[in-house]
Fold these 3 entries.
Entry 1:
Amino acid sequence: MEENIQFIANTKGWVAIKKIKVTEQTDPKNVMEFLASLGTGLDRKVEENLGKIVEIEKLNLVLDEILNDTVKTPGEIIKEVNGRKISSIVNELVEQDKWQKGEKKEVGEFLKVYAMKKALKTVKIRVDYSEIKIPGMKKTKKK
């Protein structure tokens, strides 16, 4: 029996078509690599769209301030990102009249995940599959 996984995006500024046929002979490693590449692209688009709805640069400035103070351990970074400074800027960013309470909370959670991923990457902690070099997979160009 032949199965497949497909992802098609066709929007302004983003055209992506990813497909893989899965049979009993398909190497699970190929499926894993396919899914990792798909996830990496999706994460990048989530972050790009997050930046379109909030002033993410404000969060980046606070993150840079926290991360550049002194050399920190992963534990200290986690504590800082879960701390008052990040919470304050997240609350400021989501406090928009166009959103209801539940939407503010949702966008705030996206911002907290963004902040944690960015912070942990500064101390070389892999938080997603984008750091893995997969032979034959092209790295996407950053703008």
Note: The helical segments are 28-53, 56-68, 74-81, 84-94, 101-122.
Entry 2:
Amino acid sequence: MQFHPAFFSRCFAVSALLAANLLVALPALAQLPPEVDAALARAKLPREAVTFLVTDADAKAPPRLSHRANVPVNPASVMKLVTTYVALDQLGPAFTWSTPVYTDGPLQAGTLHGNLYIKGLGDPKLVVERLWLLLRRVQGLGIQTISGDIVLDRSAFETVPQDPASFDGEPLRPYNAAPDALLLNFKSVVMTFVPDRTAGVASVSIEPPLAGVQMQTSVPLMAVDCGDYRATLKPDFSDPSRIRFTGSYPATCGERTWPIAYADPKSYAARAVEGMWRHLGGKLGGMTREGTVPQSLKPAFEIASPTLTEVVRDVNKYSNNVMAQQLFLTLSLQQKGSGTLDGSRDVVGRWWRERIGDDPPQLDNGSGLSRSERITASALARLLQSAWASPLMPELMSSLPITGVDGTLRRSKARAAGAAHLKTGSLNNVTAIAGYVHAASGKRYVLIAIANHANAAAARPVFDALVDWTAKDN
């Protein structure tokens, strides 16, 4: 027997509505578990600063614990659960991004007499290794010299002026990188320091090679304990065309890598592409610049990204903000033909009303790196219950950090190590976790805990106590 797809959509909507009514209709439980209450007191956090919800993953029973579950709060990176689940549902777990490459002139004796175009379509993981492979594919066409320009087309996403220091005053933190249709290596450089005791220096290398950027190739060694080696190096990143160090490197540190966001993100893509092209022995007669691909051109080839399932794992396990924003913008790019924040908010809002019901989240960029995003614990629980009942449950759940095992929960001090898959979130004044806990009884619970308070960073032991209390259910 075959059913029309609309039948399944209606069933999904009915089950979501029943779950919503169950969570909203029941009164909040009056008492917090004693161990959680005691942890709150030790953390000097008032009850009004936290939101807790523990309920069956299958939505068949009343919540085990509900405290301020219908109050909109800032979830920090827990909001990535919304973005990643909607992406899995709308795009499919096998979805991939393509990056097409075009030429507009004849090839003669290894020289392309014209321009080379690279069009970004939102690939969130076009890292150094894959940029190298893309340019090797160009050389595989027989091109060694480009007489014209390398043109980078970033028009698929709206370009929103963004100051990387505006959010928290940390412009060199890679997590502050802005989304980009042609996002290369997260607009970051990775510096590697390798000490050579015989020579008395540490060699310094940088990836990717950046055109027009001078890089200091060594720093003196210093015979001190390895403490804050970054401060000891006394770096100077003020000039985007030069990376230098006025200090020294502790010999006891051994080999270390240090990723930073490039100081001039607007020029990063052009510098990275041209730098890698020349590093591979390619020659360029013109310049590397921004532009758009002529509509008459057909791709010479395309490279594909890892699957959405792999990307979602990176987003959630390691809370990658710019990858989450790439996903968010891809939703409107795929449905509306252009990746815009307003368009993606509309896509998620419509999806939420159709699949989850009322109480939609207040979205900004979909990553949680925002002061304005809001969601209630009851709404987030309905999303997680919907995911639990979905064929996509394995993909979403396996992307979440495991307590005491990996990702952002690798150092979790919860005694229930391995028993919970939880997305974490943290901002100034915000700490959050949300996901699934496997209890001793064999039940699977949805757990949400969010603190919005000046002392929110002290909430982690409180959350550990809640995870342990949930896991002990028998």
Note: The first helix runs from residue 5 to 25.
Entry 3:
Amino acid sequence: MKKKILGPTFEEMLHPEKIDKTIRGRALKAMKEDPLDPINLFNITWKNNENKIRYFVMPKEITGVNANIVILYGKDFPTESHKVGATYSILMEKVIRNEIDPFYNTLIWPSTGNYGIGGAWVGCRMGFDSVVLLPEMMSKERFDLIREYGGKVIPTPGCESNVKEIYDKSKELKAENPEKVRVLNQFEEFGNYRFHYYVTGNTLLELSRELSSKGIGTGKITGVVSSMGSAGTIACGDRIKEEQPRAMIIGSEPIQCPTLISNGYGGHDIQGIGDKHVTWIHNVMNMDAMVAVDDVESKKGLQLLTDPVGMDYLSKLGVKSEDVEMMSQIFGISGVCNLYSAIKAAKYYDMTEKDTLYTIATDNIDRYRTVMKELDAKYGKMDACEAKVRYEMLFKGVKTDWVQEATYAVRKRWHNLKYYTWVEQQGKSVEELNYTMTEEFWQEQRDKIKETDKLMTAYRHSDD
């Protein structure tokens, strides 16, 4: 029997220094020379070739707050987005348990962007036929990358928040060939949760200690801020709270689609978040607050950080040239949304230089060149005057509106919103839904991490 293609364990994604040195060396070499080689699965980690965490401390000239805001960025993952970690973890868990066969099954990846790109890359590297479902209004770059990585893509109606249409298409494809087709839904698959709980959460705990040794913060995490698409990334907060119970978990969504904050709905263009429902893998009972951010402001802020005119303006403000260059490389639209959300939280909670907020930059500007051209067409090209306006209004001028703190009643309302998607549409039972309110449910999900790693280790040492 042929060996299945598998990559790292959860522990190796957290600590790549534990990967066999020969394999790790081959993977690091392939990262530059052959990014489509399956050996790059061993590059799924938040750490670089020296096993140092990839992060960036935001200049306070940009944030305008005393609190430290630290960005964990995903641009150096395979596919240039950390979502590849979620797609790999979901697929790896099923392959190692013989629930999916690369020599038979076709995979369906329902997505609004980076998850689908990651699914095409991971699925094809592991030998699967991969089909990505993607709303037709997503950026051209997303469609191009999926095809470049070997996946097929089916456009579905609508924009970022049109997730039901993706679900409907998934059901249709599954019904056509139920034995062969497997739907890997990021919104309900707990491999997504487990990657971020274990790998991202523990990475941030390690980073907080590292920064404290450098005089940044106290070693305590004041909060983690993350906008929700699948609500995978925000699972890192569950791990952080186990060690630091006073750390806050602060979610974020678009003002144009404030689903959790006000049961709202609508279209928006912060690609990757705000999918008009509460996901199955979102532990809303552990959240402390929600904030909301405008989608046009997020796009205009990204342009300020990445356009040469904006970069020149920031340099003249006194921001270090290396920081200006770094910011131009690590942010996409949702990353700027997360940054605004962190600034908003720092202002709302009167945070000081002793406080440190952590947030995530999922992808980078290369996903959004066409979106920036659309901004130019609609609003005109940015000049120095417009750069100053954007800096003053969009960064220094972040307001403390659109903040909702979590009481038990608020958390329960967030939880209750799951009913309409998962019970009425997706076939979950009320008993299953209610069980997700308990800590026992989430502990059961976490316990599968060690089990999975044991299965992987055993498989590696098995005979062909």
Note: The first strand starts at residue 55 and ends at 57.
